[in-house]
Amino acid sequence: MAAASGRSSLNPGTPDTWSGGTGNWSVAGNWNNGEPGANSDVTIYSGGSDYLSLDVGSTTINSLTLGGVANGFNSQLSDAGTNQTLNITNALNVGQNGYLQLTGATSTLTAGADSVNAGQIYLYNGASLTINGNFDNKYVVQAENGTSEINVSGTLTNES
């Protein structure tokens, strides 16, 4: 499976695609292969408006592609203001219409491989993003000054 950056993902998992519309991560019927788990290569990009709330407390997936090319719609993943932990074994790829917002005081998202952001990532109230690899930021990453943080273990390329 090719990542949004054009690089191949490591250890391909089971594709699991959001069905579209508004809903919660935990509802198995909102996904083509049920609620995502550790082997899931998750895609949230239906081509329309996607508003998804991470509502499971803590979960691990293989990879996450949030959004795709700009098409007049948004693909949004949020923690809805509650503390959530999302561990991604491999890459996080945020497309041009992707929108990630973490506002829970201890919400964390960790990606275990080189990742790309061409969309928008917002961290507030102490939420954090960790990339264990290189991070290519092409558009917007905003962390609330003093309380939220972004950690990159490799090279940060900031093109925004």
Structure description:
By secondary structure, this protein is mostly beta strands. The strands form 3 sheets. The protein has a 7-stranded parallel sheet, with no helix packed on it. Strands 2-4-7-10-13-16 form a 6-stranded parallel sheet, with no helix packed on it. It has one domain. It contains no helices and 18 strands.
Keywords:
7-stranded parallel beta sheet, single chain, mainly beta, 160 residues, 18 strands
Give a nutshell description of this structure:
This protein is mostly beta strands. The chain has one domain.
Helix-strand blueprint:
Blueprint: E1 14-17, E2 21-24, E3 40-44, E4 50-53, E5 58-61, E6 63-66, E7 75-78, E8 85-88, E9 92-94, E10 98-102, E11 108-111, E12 115-117, E13 120-123, E14 128-131, E15 135-137, E16 140-143, E17 149-152, E18 156-158
Parallel strand pairs: 1-3, 2-4, 3-6, 4-7, 5-8, 6-9, 7-10, 8-11, 9-12, 10-13, 11-14, 12-15, 13-16, 14-17, 15-18
Look at the helices and sheets and give the structural class: mainly beta
Q: What value does the Rg take, in angstroms?
A: 14 Å
Describe the largest sheet.
7 strands, parallel
Total DSSP E strands: 18
Count of separate structural domains: 1
Terminal Cα span: 27 Å
